[in-house]
From TrEMBL:
Transmembrane segments: none
Superkingdom of the organism of origin: Bacteria
UniProt-listed InterPro entries: CE4, Glyco_hydro/deAcase_b/a-brl
Naturally occurring in which organism (per UniProt): Streptomyces lunalinharesii
Protein name: Lipoprotein
Length: 429
């Protein structure tokens, strides 16, 4: 596959494995999560899955963790550093996080998140930013740091365990840096979240799974350096300053290939991050914390026509449908697109009419298999974000909401099976 600037290289073949809920699903792409006998029971009639309501292995919450209080803003824009970023006050258009009232049914949260966040030739960043506006949704855009670093300055990047300037993805063109900066500003002002996808996108040997805590901190520090000094590194003087401070706004991320979460969790604490979306996969259950950080994993969703659960990411469908080939049989595109839509909606319906656990969907700005995974997301946004009681939010907004709930309420929510519709007065007290 031809490598387009700023695009991911061909992914490695998947590793199929069985795991219990408490084990890490150790695949870079994680194609299929098969049913675990005695734990995940598949209903052959309707494809629903029931997870055990036990919470063994989950870390207990120590009460709502209040985010750092924002200092009073004097109403003036504060340009930071070399003029790449600025502080324009607390972000607007955010979800008002309120504790549930006794007997109140939780909102059905849906989080659409994007790895990479480059505005390339396909204009997918701007497309989904506009679609979010149309459907009163917020999304999480995970920015890759080197997407604001010109190729001519690649020697500024010192990736852990790899040669200086190397990366597993292409550096962007100057024009793509310009268009990405424009979209970052607009996305933030629309109320969306900007998170991190780190820098070089290394997977497998010498990838994030092999990195120490210190190496993860180096990767994070370099991410901040690239995004806070894009003006110096590019020399652009005609591009407006970003209207936010990365140090304040980045509160979580997703590791490339979902690798390295144990040491990453240890590294991110010193940055005050509040969540991580790097967990390889879990059941559709209410989130818990790992090492004091909210864990927002990809989720196992019913796979149409199969007796297994597939993970809620476009990579997963790609490998199941075309064995990882990004240009599979065009005659099957329509069928594959409908399979993808049906799986997402089956996962949505299971919790919407059941436990109301948040639904997490992770995707990439890619045109794999004729862009069917992008077209599928378009349909899912339109069919879910418009339903009564649904809030399509960012990970950051979800973390805000979870932080203000009673710990005992969250514990009871976690005890629900995905499709279990309880008497809410017995859960929210």
């Amino acid at each position: 596959m031809k490598s387009t600037p700023g695009r991911r290289r061909k992914a490695r073949a998947p590793h199929r494995t069985l795991r219990t809920r408490s084990a890490v699903l150790a695949s870079a792409v994680l194609v299929v999560c098969s049913a675990v006998a005695g734990y995940l029971v598949l209903d052959q009639a309707n494809g629903d899955a029931q997870a055990s309501s036990g919470t063994k292995g989950a870390s207990a919450d120590r009460g709502p963790a209040k985010p750092p209080k924002e200092p009073a803003w004097d109403g003036r824009t504060k340009v930071l550093g070399d003029g790449s970023t600025s502080y324009t006050g607390p972000q607007k258009k955010q979800l008002a996080a309120k504790p549930l009232k006794p007997g109140e049914q939780p909102p059905q949260f849906v989080v659409f998140s994007w790895d990479g966040a480059l505005e390339g030739e396909e204009r997918l960043f701007s497309h989904y930013r506009e679609l979010a506006k149309d459907y009163d949704a917020h999304m999480t855009f995970f920015l890759t740091g080197i997407y604001l670093l010109p190729k001519s300055k690649q020697d500024l990047y010192h990736p852990p365990q790899h040669p200086v300037g190397s990366a597993a993805i292409s550096y962007p063109t100057d024009e793509h840096i310009r268009t990405t900066l424009t979209q970052l500003s607009a996305a933030y002002e629309d109320g969306n979240e900007i998170g991190t996808h780190f820098n070089g996108h290394f997977c497998g040997a010498k990838g994030g799974g092999d990195w120490s805590v210190a190496e993860w901190k180096s990767e994070i520090d370099q991410f901040y350096d690239f995004v806070e000094k894009w003006r110096t590194n590019t020399g652009f003087r005609d591009v407006p300053t970003l209207p936010f401070d990365f140090r304040k706004e980045v509160t979580g991320g997703r590791a490339p290939c979902l690798e390295g979460q144990p040491n990453l969790l240890k590294a991110m604490k010193s940055y005050g991050w509040r969540y991580d979306a790097s967990s390889p996969g879990d059941f559709q259950i209410w989130p818990t914390k790992k090492d004091g950080v909210w864990d927002f994993p990809l989720q196992m969703l019913p796979y149409p026509g199969g007796n297994y659960q597939g993970l809620s990411m476009d990579f997963n469908f790609l490998y199941n449908q075309s064995k990882g080939e990004t240009k599979g049989d065009p005659a099957k595109y329509a069928t594959w697109e409908q399979q993808t839509v049906d799986s997402y909606l089956a996962g949505f319906d299971r919790v919407y009419y059941g436990s109301r656990a948040p639904l997490f969907i992770g995707n990439h700005f890619e045109d794999w298999n004729g862009s069917i995974y992008m077209k599928a997301i378009d349909q899912v946004i339109k069919k879910t974000c418009t339903k009564k009681g649904v809030k399509c939010v960012s990970f950051k907004e979800l973390a805000d909401w979870l932080d203000v709930q009673r710990p005992e309420t969250l514990q009871r929510l976690r005890g629900l099976d995905p499709a279990q519709a309880p008497d809410w007065s017995t859960v929210v007290k």
